[in-house]
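Query structure, 137 tokens:
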């Protein structure tokens, strides 16, 4: 079977580095799972998810000459979207009962918190300098 981008293949992890993991594929070819393609969550250390000798199913993302880019997270099936439900007309809407703040509300809260922090910071630095309007003679 010819390997092409988009296909799911099986391989064995041969080496782990700080930027990803090398996987030996069929016909002795070697591909790289970049650290960003290991899991759906932030990966600080590849060793937390993979070990040398592991047999994994990966998706071939790209083939560029001898370089084969692989993805572990894209090979896994996506979980069904449970956050959105389809209504009778086929529209998708947010589920009932979960209220999320609008962008404007979040922005307003951020600006208010930011102004409070700046005010506190100015008070602290002014008190160290002697306050406003103080003169050194």
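Result returned for the query:
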């Amino acid at each position: 079977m010819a390997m092409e981008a988009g296909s799911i293949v099986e391989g064995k992890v041969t080496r782990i580095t700080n930027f990803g993991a090398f996987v030996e594929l069929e016909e002795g070819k070697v591909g790289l799972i970049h650290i960003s393609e290991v899991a759906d969550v932030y990966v600080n250390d590849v060793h937390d998810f993979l070990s040398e000798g592991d047999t994994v199913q990966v998706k071939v993302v790209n083939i560029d000459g001898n370089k084969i880019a692989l993805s572990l997270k894209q090979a896994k099936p996506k979980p069904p979207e449970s956050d959105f439900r389809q209504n009778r007309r086929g529209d998708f809407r947010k589920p009932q009962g979960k209220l999320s703040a609008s962008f404007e509300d979040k922005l307003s809260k951020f600006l208010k918190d930011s102004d409070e922090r700046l005010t506190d910071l100015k008070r602290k630095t002014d008190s160290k300098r002697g306050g406003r309007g103080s003169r050194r003679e």
